[in-house]
Amino acid sequence: MSLRFKAIGLLLLGTIFWGMTFVFIKDAVSLMSVAGFLGYRFLLAGFVLALIFIKRIKRLDRTTLKYGALMSLPLLSSFLAQTIGLQYTSASKGGFITGLSVVFVPVILSIIQRKLPSSNIFIAVLMATMGLAMLTLSSSLDLNIGDTWVFLSAILFAIYIIMVGNISKKCDGILLSVTQFLLVGVICTTHAGINGDLYIPMQYKLWQAILFTALFATAYMYTVQNYYQKYISEITTSIIFSFEPLFAAITAYFYLNEALTEETIFGGLLIFIGILFAELKGKDVKALLRIGNY
Known about the structure:
With 294 residues, the chain is an all-alpha fold. Helices cover 80% and strands 0% of the residues. The longest helix is centred in the N-terminal third of the chain and has 29 residues.
């Protein structure tokens, strides 16, 4: 298996974990403050990762610390903006707007590189956005202050994806993850402590949520992203992340007995087609279009 396909597979698995977190976080944030929960989540992820790769910690240098600290800013800001926004908007609209990072990534890259996206990237983003809309949007499209916060979160996460694409080629992905997790964890727990919201969780559901999100949705997912994203494009990465609402719907189907609609299945198919187009070269797209004309 090539490193490119391995990267896609591992990121897809992590996106499944992201989709599953909805079931756990839903109850957790009703029992604990968001800052306290995120603090435990990221600190635990950082400490576990440091213990697993303890020999690598000795190679931690100033460059990695600098880049890790830099990357923790859009990561933490994206989490906070999304959390604030979801208090004022619906989960469906929040999911769609968050997923718009699939659009923001090529737009930001075009500004940085001063050139328009290729035809295959344009089609890939269009397919993924249409699929995302089918997965998340309802009939109501009224905008409010919450949508603005989530919109900001999507832009920040797009910036994070682009930063990972560049920085992961310069530093050890494991050490980058450890640095980011510990910094975000310290900031969140400090904030929770100042506000009197920090305490040792006693509820089983809360520890279940902390452990799952820390080990699978954080330690695994962001480490895989930091380590393997250098083998695929930032745009392919953002399209893979668009699968999150689909996996959330599938999880809700099995655990909460919620319906799995045709729109959900078709939306997931469109996102999958988007990934295929993102991985195609320009000449391959032209060949496909020629075939369609016969």
